[in-house]
Amino acid sequence: MSLKKSSSLISPEFFGEEKGSETTVPKESALDIVVRLEKSMVLRRTAPAEQPRPPTRVQIPLWSEEHRPVLHDLVRSALFTCGQKDARMDLKAKPIYALEHIKITYTGEELRQRDYDVYLQILHLSRGVTVDSRQEWVEFDARALVKLLGWTQNSRSLLELRETIRRLTACALEVTRARTKTSVPVVYGGPLLLKYAGAQEGSFDEVTFWKVQINTEVAAQLKPGDYTRIDWQVRSQLSPLEKWLHAFYSTNQNPYPMKVETIHKLCGSRMAEIKFFRRAIKAALTRLTEVGFLSSWQIDDTDKVKVTRSQMLTSDAVGAAKAL
Asked: Are 56 and 216 in contact (CB under 8 A)?
């Protein structure tokens, strides 16, 4: 059985010159080619230039002096761990443990709660401001920020602030979030800070004035229902594990019971044995009760943590009250 080319379906040019064709395309001379190319260049020069895309403008929400904004995607995961003394891990395209509707991939030095404190303060300084992809700078005095963080006022704190800004700039995260199983996922990412500059006094490491540029793609996710304003005064009194629990439980007024093992993974704890972590979480939950954030807590016979919130959610989190 032979196959025949169908001229009605496929153009003859697809197969090359047809045999027996009476028409031939004249071959260009070298002079013809030069003339054609010159005409093409003239047309390109006279064609109207493409208009640049207008910059994406982002309105950073307003909140009070007493609050800081926590993005649900970030605090419902182990992105900012509760680590303290262990050496920081160096991660490369590492999947970060998170609630099932969130997927995070991270590259960079491990981020911890003190890093998140710095990032929250920088966001706080930009509240109410409209920024765009051309990136206005957020400027601040290093010593004033150290004071707001509650850190000791010394050269070591200035150095830690410098290292933290570098870490927030050198990282790269990709977040994929779906509100429901049928909704279209939202994807965003990049470093948390795009770049920075500073001025120093005294020793080489003592930068006393900073200006940084936040990643507007991440900041743009601060929308009603996707973030919660937390009490900064409460957070400033807490240990790293307590800070993680405070931010995590702030995103829902009526959290579902969750196994101790799950919380162990979600907070990024590196305690090798669950029994030691269980002891740590009991102390942390007791502390959150003492500061008035929780009214009660218990770990039941199935090893699930049950907590009862004692304060109302802000309006920003009402829309996400059933997400947990």
From this structure: yes
